């Protein structure tokens, strides 16, 4: 196996949500740099590899990105097969793109492996379809956290008609609420807040836009959590309160199966 860095998504937490390709990369790894939010249970696939924690759980507050870059480069140049294991998908708020570019510029062979991103997993685990015919024609993934001062176009988000999935939002609930309300989103827009998605200790809190901050506070919502904002977040309620809507969907589905 030639020297290579695999940038691998470990999925949201449930080890069964790991891809077969991620398992293959782990099996071939000599060195695994493991990030925060990766369930260490997945390391059963690389019993012989050297494991290097590079997140907050590694003992330091946060491993500098430049140090991680150099570490990957050093091992790759020593002919090692390196797996950089990240929570969720490596390219969704995971710096996968930057790391791949940095390594390739230095002549290192890089392969990216998808993982199931937390936003998609969290919604599905709570039976929330992020897109739903007649309800949501799209989905927008957004981070509430920025290192630079780049601000989001909240008004466009509020009026997009797509389901919003917000990452890193627990500490920003007040700002998210204010911005979406100011952008014209309806006060009673359904919200689902999903903590530790796909793990045995997953918790979910359902609310509406105006009440989400208070509800999250009473619920003691903690990171990691994602927010799903939009009509689909009350999907179960929609089905219960509008039997006609459910019947129509079921009939259409039956029709599609037959045709
Ligand atoms: N690359 C990751 C995201 C990293 S950013 C992915 O694709 O999932 C970290 C943020 O992801 C957290 O602040 C939280 O908003 C979200 N997150 C990660 N794992 C999560 C989980 N199991 N449950 C809920 N949110 C999670």
Summarize the structure.
The chain is α/β, with parallel strands linked by helices and 259 residues long. It contains 9 helices and 10 strands.
Q: What is the topological layout?
A:
Layout: E1 4-9, H1 20-28, E2 31-34, E3 50-53, H2 65-77, E4 81-86, H3 96-105, E5 110-113, H4 118-125, E6 139-143, H5 154-158, E7 163-167, H6 173-182, E8 190-195, E9 203-208, H7 212-219, E10 225-229, H8 235-241, H9 243-258
Parallel strand pairs: 1-4, 1-5, 2-3, 2-4, 6-7
Antiparallel strand pairs: 7-10, 8-9, 8-10
Helix pairs in contact: 8-9
The site of S-adenosyl-L-homocysteine has 24 residues, from helix 4 and strand 10.
Pfam families: TP_methylase
EC number: 2.1.1.107
GO molecular function: uroporphyrin-III C-methyltransferase activity
Tell me what you see in this structure:
Its EC number is 2.1.1.107. This is uroporphyrinogen-III C-methyltransferase. GO terms for molecular function: uroporphyrin-III C-methyltransferase activity. Pathway: Porphyrin-containing compound metabolism; siroheme biosynthesis; precorrin-2 from uroporphyrinogen III: step 1/1; Cofactor biosynthesis; adenosylcobalamin biosynthesis. InterPro entries: 4pyrrol_Mease, 4pyrrol_Methylase_sf, 4pyrrole_Mease_sub1, 4pyrrole_Mease_sub2, CobA/CysG_C, Siro_Cobalamin_biosynth, Uropor_MeTrfase_CS. The protein has 259 residues and is an alpha/beta fold. The chain has 2 domains: 4-113, Cobalt-precorrin-4 Transmethylase, domain 1 (3-Layer(aba) Sandwich), CATH 3.40.1010; 118-246, Methyltransferase, Cobalt-precorrin-4 Transmethylase, Domain 2. It contains 9 helices and 10 strands. The strands form 2 sheets. It has a 5-stranded parallel beta sheet with strand order 3-2-4-1-5, sandwiched between helices. A 5-stranded mixed beta sheet has the order 6-7-10-8-9, with helices on both faces. Helix 8 (235-241) crosses helix 9 (243-258). It is elongated. S-adenosyl-L-homocysteine is lined by residues 12-13, 37, 86-89, 92-94, 117-118, 122, 167-168, 194, 196-199, 223-226.
């Amino acid at each position: 196996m030639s020297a290579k860095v695999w940038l691998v998504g470990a999925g949201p937490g449930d080890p069964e949500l790991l891809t077969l390709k991620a398992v293959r990369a782990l099996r071939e790894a000599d060195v695994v740099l493991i990030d925060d939010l990766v369930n260490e249970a997945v390391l059963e696939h690389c019993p012989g590899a050297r494991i290097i924690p590079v997140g907050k759980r590694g003992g330091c507050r946060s491993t500098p990105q430049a140090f991680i870059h150099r570490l990957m480069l050093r091992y790759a140049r020593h002919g090692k097969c390196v797996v950089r294991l990240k929570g969720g998908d490596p390219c969704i708020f995971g710096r996968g793109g930057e790391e791949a570019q940095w390594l390739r510029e230095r002549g290192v062979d890089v392969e990216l492996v998808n993982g199931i991103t937390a936003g998609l997993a969290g919604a599905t685990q709570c039976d929330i379809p992020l897109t739903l015919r007649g309800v949501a024609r799209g989905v927008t993934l957004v981070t509430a956290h920025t290192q630079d001062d780049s601000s989001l176009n909240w008004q466009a988000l509020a009026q997009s008609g797509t389901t919003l999935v917000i990452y890193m939002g627990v500490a920003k609930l007040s700002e998210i609420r204010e911005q979406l309300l100011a952008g014209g989103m309806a006060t009673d827009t359904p919200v689902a807040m999903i903590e530790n998605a796909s793990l045995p200790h997953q918790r979910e809190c359902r609310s509406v836009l105006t009440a989400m901050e208070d509800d999250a506070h009473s619920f003691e919502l903690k990171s990691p959590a994602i927010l799903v904002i939009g009509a689909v977040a009350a999907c179960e309620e929609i089905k219960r309160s509008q039997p006609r809507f459910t019947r129509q969907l079921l009939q259409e589905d039956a029709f599609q199966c037959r045709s």
